[in-house]
Amino acid sequence: MEVMTPRGPARVEVDEAERPRMLLVLTHGSAGTVDAPDLLAVRDAALGVGASVARVTQPFRLAGGRAPGPAARQDEAWGAVLGELRARWPGLPLVQGGRSNGARVACRTARDVGATAVVALAFPLHPPGRPERSRADELRGAGVDVLVVNGDRDPFGVPDAADAARLVVLPGEGHELKKDPARVGEVVARWLRALVPA
Q1: Distances in Å between the alpha carbon of 28 and those of 11, 104, 106, 169, 198?
Q2: Which domains does the chain have, with CATH numbers?
Q3: Which tens digits make up the pLDDT trace of 18-46?
Q4: Closest to 36 measured CA to CA, from 187, 181, 189
Q5: Is 51 in a helix, a strand, or coil?
Q6: pTM of the predicted model as reported, rounded to 2 decimal places
Q7: What is the CA radius of gyration of the chain?
Q8: Per-residue pLDDT reduced to its tens digit, 121-169
């Protein structure tokens, strides 16, 4: 389905659980798509624990852009999409997340959209080679529990365990988390199961 935002249309692809316990909303990185291997693995695993899953292609990507632009504009568009999704699935606990830049959006907007928790895949702690430009404040400022799943070879860095409710560092994985996407899905599904018990 398409959702109109103040920054243009966003596209939402939904996979519904038979008896959903929660709504999990995921989005892509700056130059990526919602068909990234880790996002698809998380979708599949989350469906298995009773989450309906919505994957959102943000307006800047739908328009062909590779850079998200100012954070405030991206967050404004995200809020519009989440408002529509909350109206369509009222009453379900909301968990939101994404990979890389999408994880940053999910952290920045969690409180405003009423999310219960955030799943941050390949959270880009800092630009490659620039550890002094840390984005840890976005993790700490989420205001909800955050699960971070990063690879130990990620050039964007690995957050500190103290900055998230749970940090899982996967050996041998880089920023794309594509060596063993099923493992990423398992980690997220286990956390979701504990977060929203049946």
Answers
A1: 12, 10, 11, 20, 28
A2: 2-195 (3.40.50.1820)
A3: 999 999 999 999 989 999 999 999 999 99
A4: 181
A5: strand
A6: 0.96
A7: 15
A8: 999 999 898 999 999 999 999 999 999 999 999 999 999 999 999 999 9
* Residue 92 to residues 9, 21, 71, 184, 191, Cα–Cα distance (Å): 24, 7, 27, 24, 17
**Strands in the chain per DSSP E:** 2-5, 8-15, 22-27, 51-57, 94-99, 117-121, 145-151, 166-170
Burial of 197 (0-12, 13-18, 19+ CB in 10 A): exposed
With tokens 């490659």, the residue in question is: 128
Q: Give the tokens for residue 62.
A: 């739908």
Instruction: Show the tokens assigned to 40.
Output: 């698809």
Chain position carrying tokens 């594509």: 178
Eight-state DSSP code of residue 55: E
Q: Of all helices (H) and strands (E), which one includes residue 189?
A: helix 181-195
User: What's the CA gap between 7 and 78, in Å, rounded?
Assistant: 9
**Structural tokens at position 68:** 């998200």
